[in-house]
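Practice problem 4.
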């Protein structure tokens, strides 16, 4: 089977390489020729433009966008729909907001094109381990492209599936990433408590490794934490500044809209926001209030 991938970055490039290994023909495009050349070395058919991608695919075509959510996706959706024909399929594999995907599906339907929103998880390890795929949209299109999804997933029967209509794939991926926020924050806080207990000088890498086997808290995130902690000095070179790419915020917004409490995810997001403040005013004010009402000592700024 064949597919065109637009956006051969860390995720898109790994997906293209995995599909080639699975015996599929992949036509790939990226803004930089160097990125395309790297993909070509992995067996991808290189393209010089979006038009070139479409031109090198036989109908019914499938074009998979792996580009940043927001304005970039908006532009590529519009441009791609202008090039595709009735019966073709457009896939958005980025982290778009699910409401945008519902709108894009309506635009595609008006053009006679099927639209799939696919939440993709797996990061830089996906090429070797397989990607988790959460598919929303047209059932016939998802069924037709099943060989593509089966090759990208960890196995032909695990780690992928159509979860619902248009927008459902990105909605499930949004909540997936919100849960991820909470898990990461929990691990980080737990190891911080262990580190602060100086009596035993606990070996955090050893503890993480013990937990990896048989423990109810074992997970891939714990595996990664064990590797990070074993490296020791690596953490000393990393600033305590944690970004968010949007999905955690959207999960919190959705929980509020649905009147469903999600305090762990909300707090995890707030912790990330706090990490970016070089001069936390709120804590200064707290210290000043304690000094005024109770005469408590304050540290000089």
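Answer key:
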């Amino acid at each position: 089977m064949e597919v065109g991938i637009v956006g051969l970055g860390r995720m898109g490039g790994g997906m293209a390489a995995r599909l080639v290994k699975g015996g599929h023909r992949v036509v790939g495009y990226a803004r930089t020729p160097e990125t395309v050349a790297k993909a070509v070395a992995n067996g991808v058919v290189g393209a010089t433009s979006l038009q070139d991608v479409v031109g090198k695919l036989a109908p019914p075509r499938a074009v998979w966008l792996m580009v940043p959510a927001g304005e970039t996706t908006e532009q590529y959706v519009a441009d791609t729909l202008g090039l595709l024909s009735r019966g073709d399929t457009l896939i958005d594999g980025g982290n778009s907001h699910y409401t945008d995907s519902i709108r894009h599906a309506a635009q595609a339907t008006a053009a006679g094109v099927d639209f799939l929103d696919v939440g993709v998880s797996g990061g830089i390890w996906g090429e070797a381990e397989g990607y988790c795929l959460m598919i929303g949209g047209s059932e016939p299109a998802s069924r037709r492209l099943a060989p593509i999804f089966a090759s990208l997933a960890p196995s032909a029967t695990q780690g992928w599936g159509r979860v619902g209509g248009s927008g459902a794939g990105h909605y499930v991926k949004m909540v997936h990433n919100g849960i991820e926020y909470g898990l990461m924050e929990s691990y980080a806080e737990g190891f911080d408590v262990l580190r602060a207990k100086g009596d035993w000088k606990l070996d955090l890498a050893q503890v993480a490794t013990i937990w990896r086997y048989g423990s109810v808290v074992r997970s891939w995130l714990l595996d990664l934490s064990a590797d990070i902690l074993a490296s020791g000095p690596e953490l000393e070179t990393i600033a305590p500044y944690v970004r968010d790419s949007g999905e955690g915020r959207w999960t919190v917004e959705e929980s509020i809209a649905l009147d469903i409490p999600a305090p762990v995810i909300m707090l995890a997001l707030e912790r990330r926001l706090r990490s970016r403040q070089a001069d936390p005013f709120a804590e200064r004010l707290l210290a000043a209030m304690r000094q005024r009402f109770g005469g408590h000592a304050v540290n000089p700024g």
